[in-house]
Amino acid sequence: MLIEVFKSKIHRVRVTQADLNYIGSITIDEALMEAANIMEGEKLQIVNNNNGARLETYAIRGERGTGVICLNGAAARMVQVGDVVIIISYAWLTPEEAKTFRPIAVFPDENNRLVKGV
Asked: Could you say which of 6, 51, 59, 116 has the lowest number of CB atoms within 10 Å?
């Protein structure tokens, strides 16, 4: 048996762009993706703190160091630029693996940049 557990999150980043005409996904600054151990193409849950919306999409690598958080395609209708979102990834583990697994939480600054020492 496998159970789905919280793998990692990027906590409280600001949406910098919303592109309705893009095919789909969320573009995330590559530095944030690496810090949260999120792979390009990985399925993600996006939680919008401003309006309560929750959606699923997949990650696209954005330019490193830009702080970009861009909801693309239909997901662009679920956010406004400036909204605060939480980006969450999950993993399937055996119950035994889950007992010792430790998730990663990344807490960027107000400009979506990594904070040293956090």
From this structure: 116
Write out pLDDT tens, residues 66-99: 999 999 999 999 999 999 999 999 999 999 999 9
Active site residues: 25, 58
8 token code pair: 């990692």
Low-confidence ranges of the chain (pLDDT < 50): 118
User: Which residue is it, tokens 């693309």?
Assistant: 72
Complete DSSP assignment for 76-103: GGG--TT-EEEEEEEEEE-HHHHHH---
Which residue ranges form the domains of the chain, and what is each CATH number? 3-106 (2.40.40.20)
Question: pTM for this one?
Answer: 0.95
Residues 6+ away with beta carbon under 8 Å from 97: none
